[in-house]
Amino acid sequence: MKHRRKWVAILLAAMMVMTCLSSCSGNQNVIQVGSKDFTESFLMAELYRLALEDHGFTVDRRFNLGGSPVAQAALEKGDIDVYPEYTGTALLQILNLPIATDPQKVYETVKKEYKTRFGLTWLNYTQASNSQGLAMTKEASEKYGIKTISDLQKNASEIRFASTTAFAEIADGLPLLEEHYGEFNFKETRVFDVSLKYQVLLNGEMDLTVAFLTDGQLADDRFVVLEDDKHVWPPYNIAPIVRDEALEQYPEIEEILNNVSQALDNETMRSLNSQVDIEQKDYEAVAREFYESHIKE
Question: Which of 47, 218, 269, 288 could form a disulfide with 128 if both were Cys (CB 3.0 to 4.6 A apart)?
Answer without folding.
Answer: 269
